[in-house]
Design goal:
heterodimer, A: seven-stranded mixed β-sheet, four-stranded antiparallel β-sheet, about 0% helix, B: mainly beta, six-stranded mixed β-sheet
């Protein structure tokens, strides 16, 4: 199993629909993150969580919400999807300290 | 927010060394310098990180300027599989957050 699993891998949804992207990990790390990547650009932080009871906004949290259901699960929701939320979404995890992230394979979301 | 500046693209010949530069003039004393790479259709992959001293691992070397305002990722012998977008990132000491820039697209020629 991959360290970080994202589902679904691809999704097409209609404007105004609610959609949830899920992320689960097998490393036992406390810290989980959601990033968004637009074509030709770097990643931008949406939300992050340092433990189950900790949720923090990132650079671009408007229009998104998250839920940390368990240490291993961190979900990203779009309450009412809009076309400019079409992007590649990545979940990442990290341990404590200043080590690196491990990223999932991404979810490609298209809002039509 | 911590920021980095990298060239948009670079080109290298296979089996030659590659030096990827990064400027981070606003770095603070507790910020770590990280490098990631992203292959097409994949998530970013950790390459290396450091604070003040130069670092080596099996993938690459990281050379950090004495004033820490710039760093260089060194791939000692580029292969075709090293063609990717390379991101130089600062991990903020105060918040543990990463901020990604646009990265450098490395093209490796056979």
């Amino acid at each position: 199993d991959a360290d970080v699993t994202q589902t679904p891998r691809n999704r097409i949804t209609k404007t105004g629909k609610r959609i949830m992207l899920e992320c689960s990990q097998t490393k036992g790390h406390d810290r989980m993150y959601w990033y968004r990547q637009d074509p030709g650009l770097g990643l931008r932080l949406i939300y992050y969580s340092f433990d189950v009871k900790d949720i923090n906004k990132g650079e671009i949290s408007d229009g998104y919400s998250v839920s940390r259901q368990a240490q291993a699960k961190f979900s990203l929701s779009l309450e009412s999807a809009i076309p400019n939320q079409t992007a590649l979404y990545f979940c990442a995890i990290s341990g404590q300290g200043f080590g690196g992230y491990t990223f999932g394979s991404g979810t490609r979301l298209t809002v039509v | 927010d911590a920021k980095t500046t990298q060239p948009n693209s670079m080109e290298s010949n296979e089996e030659e060394p590659v030096h990827l530069p990064c400027n981070h003039s606003t770095i603070s004393g507790t910020d770590y310098i990280h490098w990631y790479r992203q292959l097409p259709s994949q998530g970013p992959e950790y390459v290396i990180h450091g604070l003040t001293s130069n670092v080596n691992n099996r993938m690459a070397s990281l050379a950090i300027a004495e004033d820490r305002k710039s760093s260089t990722l060194i791939l000692h012998r580029a292969t075709l599989r090293d063609a990717a977008v390379y991101y130089c990132i600062l991990r903020e000491g105060a918040t543990n957050k990463f901020y990604f820039g646009s990265g450098t697209k490395l093209n490796v020629k056979p």
